[in-house]
Amino acid sequence: MFSALFSHSAASTADFSHLEQASVEFRDVNKRYGDHQVLNDINLTITPGEVVAILGPSGSGKSTLIRLINQLENLSGGEILVDNKPTGRLSGNGLRQLRSRVGFVFQQFNLYAHLTASQNITLALEHVHGWKPRPAQERALTLLENVGMLEKAHHFPAELSGGQQQRVAIARALASSPQIILFDEPTSALDPEMIGEVLLVMKALAHSGITMIVVTHEMQFAREIADRIVFIDGGQILETAPPEQFFRQPSHPRAQRFLQKVL
Ligand code: ADP
Ligand code: MG
């Protein structure tokens, strides 16, 4: 159904096939802002290559949970292991290394407005990862082709639709060959007609082998692509289950109420 959206539909999915994967483990993770306990004793192990959808009401701690993984926020307690190694509190090179292994896609795309699509990708490759301009440019074009955006490589974000900008942001998140990719409501800022093209790219990624954690309100999408649903409310994981089980018969009353509202 979605493949007609791309002029290079085969290429748009094929090159996601060799992605690396790593585990993520939360051990007794707590997060507070001042007196406000936002995450409460989170224990969760995500296995290499697993696709996990994080569901829950607004304000339940979903964004905070995934932002802790690449240290966009700092822990208040507990630890997070990536690929079985505690990440600790990193800065400088260590933080750069962590972020090159863990890609992040934001709700609001966060592209640099003064850079073209391809420059948005080459910037980090050249200045953070030390690539030479020519290979960086080639890599950017390959990534843009993978997300069906090759024709727009030299356009600025303002010249792109929201769906196109988000596809560029996904290509950018993949530039450093991460083993884990995190999505924070990647389609929530999009007009309805653009959601499909972004979900299509994410679906291809989900099949690529990369470890993927997606905060989303797209229930049908979560049901289709996730290996596991993690339901969170009030800063706690209340239920984890395979999608079929979660959507057919959620066991926690709050998950039941949540589904009644959103389905
Ligand atoms: P969700 O993504 O599920 O909507 P968030 O993780 O964004 O939830 O937020 C969880 C809770 O933490 C909310 O009550 C929110 O107001 C609070 N919160 C988030 N970020 C901050 C911050 N930087 N400072 C203070 N409180 C915050
Ligand atoms: Mg959020």
From TrEMBL:
Membrane topology note: Peripheral membrane protein
Cellular component GO terms, alphabetical: plasma membrane
Class of the enzyme per the UniProt entry, highest EC level: hydrolase
The EC number(s) this enzyme carries: 3.6.1.15, 3.6.1.3
SMART domains: AAA
All copies of domain ABC transporter, residue ranges: 24-259
Main location group: membrane
Keyword terms: Amino-acid transport, ATP-binding, Cell membrane, Hydrolase, Membrane, Nucleotide-binding, Transport
The UniProt record lists the keyword Cell inner membrane: no
Name by which UniProt lists this protein: ATP-binding component of an ABC superfamily amino acid transporter
Species this protein is from: Trabulsiella guamensis ATCC 49490
Organism lineage string: Bacteria, Pseudomonadati, Pseudomonadota, Gammaproteobacteria, Enterobacterales
